Amino acid sequence: MRSRRRLAPALLAPALLSPVVLVALAACSDGPAPEPDASPSVSAPTGAGQTTPVPPTPDDQRAALASAGDATDLFAGEVTGGASQQASVADVAAGSYAPRVVCTSADGAPVTVTVVAAGAELASYEAPCVPLIEGGATMADGSSFDVPGGALDVTVAAVTDAVVAVGLVPAG
To answer: Would you state the CATH architecture of domain 58-170?
Structure first.
C-alpha cells in the first residue's frame, strides 16, 4: 500500500499540469508567426560566434579618401585578385602630387598603383591594405612625383580581391 501512496501524486501531477501547459502554449501561438527580417547587413555565422565580414563598397572607400582632405579622386572600385582596373582623369593641374590609397583586401595583400601621363610612367606605388577580416581600411600616401598637367591614367593591380580608392594629394 505504501508504494501506491507514493506513486499517486506522481501520476496525478501530469494531469494537473497539462491544462496549464496547454493554456501557455495557446497564448504563445496566437496568430501567424511573424516573417523573419531579411536584413542584408546580417551575415551568416561561420563558426563559434563569428560572422563573415562585409567588405566596404567603393563608395565607402571614396568617402574615406574625401574625408582625409584635398585629394583629387582618380579611381574607386573593386579589383579582382590577379587582375587590374584602369581609370582616366582628363584634366589634372601641373604640380607635385603624392598618391593616396584607401584599401581593403581579402587577405591584406597590397595593391600596386601606377600613374601614367602621355604614355610615361610617373609613379608606381605598392599600397598596403587591411585584411577584410579586420574590417576598416588602410590609408597611405606614396612618394611625391611631378605631374606635367593634363590627362592621367591610373592602374590598380591586385594579387587578391580588393576594394580600393586612389586619389592625388598636393605634395608640399
So the answer is: Sandwich (2.60)
